[in-house]
Design a protein that fits this description.
The chain is mainly alpha-helical. 62% of the residues lie in helices and 7% in strands. Helix 6 crosses helix 8.
Length: 411
Amino acid sequence: METAATPLQCYIGKLRIFRKIFPPLFSLCAVQVLWLRLAALRHSSFRHWFGTLACALLAAAFSGCQTAGYYRQAVAGQCQILVHRQSIPKLLADPKTPAPLRAKFEAILQIRRFAAWQLHLPAGQSYLQYTDLHRPFVVWNVTIAPALSLEPKTWWFPIVGRAGYRGYFHEQPARNYADAFARKGWDVHVDGIETYSTLGWFKDPILNTFITEPDSSLAETIFHELAHQRLFVPGDTDFNEAFATAVATEGLRRWFLAASIPLAYEHYRANLDKEHQFIDLIMAARRQLQALYDNPNLSDTAKLSRKQDIIAQLRARHADLKASWGGQSPFDAWFAEPINNAKLNTISAYYDLVPAFQALLRANGGDLEKFYQAVARLGQLPLPERHRQLASHLAANENDQPAFIAPFPSP
């Protein structure tokens, strides 16, 4: 007598066929399809058991090469987040939920509503759940660049295309991967990341890695990640991160004004001004390094020596800036670690194009919906033309107020 296959066996069987067609995409699609099945299960204890088993089988499906190992850890890491999600409304209704955590949940629900109603961001079902990972970071990102170039190494991934970083759900594998390149003479940087977005493929939860941040930081994080869900251009990290940063910055400004807390907003603006000065330092150092690397009259040995001089000057300029701030700097931790091309690229990716996006927002009269549509049109262009047209908006608005301070009326 033939034994009937369980639903799980049927799903795994179908997914293994698909895996042969396009192996890298298997990791994402496998989780997606299995989670649809998991979501249909109502009994919480069985749902947890089913999710754990499904993730284990998916992880075991990868074996052999380094690429397979990388996707195996990606599947296992994402499954850990999904399996341990808890409903925020249920946690709010639970009298055992600690008061500080309850206050954060209430703030998050308000921030989500503001993002949807005032910023036109797709809150959907994101950030209605909570996951405690029992670690300080959700992922560790590896960035790599040649020792004498600011051109980052990129990797191709399913769905998102090329990206200038490679994420790991555990720190040691990330450092092992980076160390292998460092031994070959590359510049490497490993950075712990508190939050990330699945671009709407899953219902992203709030994580313990960032829930204890001030409400303003929570708002900025949620606005940034939801901006990725609103618009994401595969293969253009700088464009995507700068767009999300510009949206989060403007969203947070409007959030402060709507909350009628002017003193908090002035404090935020003061910190934002410090951030702007820090970014100016980084960009100036990058321009010096780029000119150095492009110099055909210097040997590689001379360039490496001069590179260290430029980095030392960067540290000295930060020390001067810190003194002008009264001896306190929010960037001490950044300067406490080694600085190289890979680390400098992490700042460039998030901020290099931000002023151009802010100029585009000003050109659309502060109307976010028109702004999103304009950005979407840019996203359809080839990358070089996309960046050229975006930069043209900055040139056309070069006499406007400084970046990060956009004087629009609150909605």
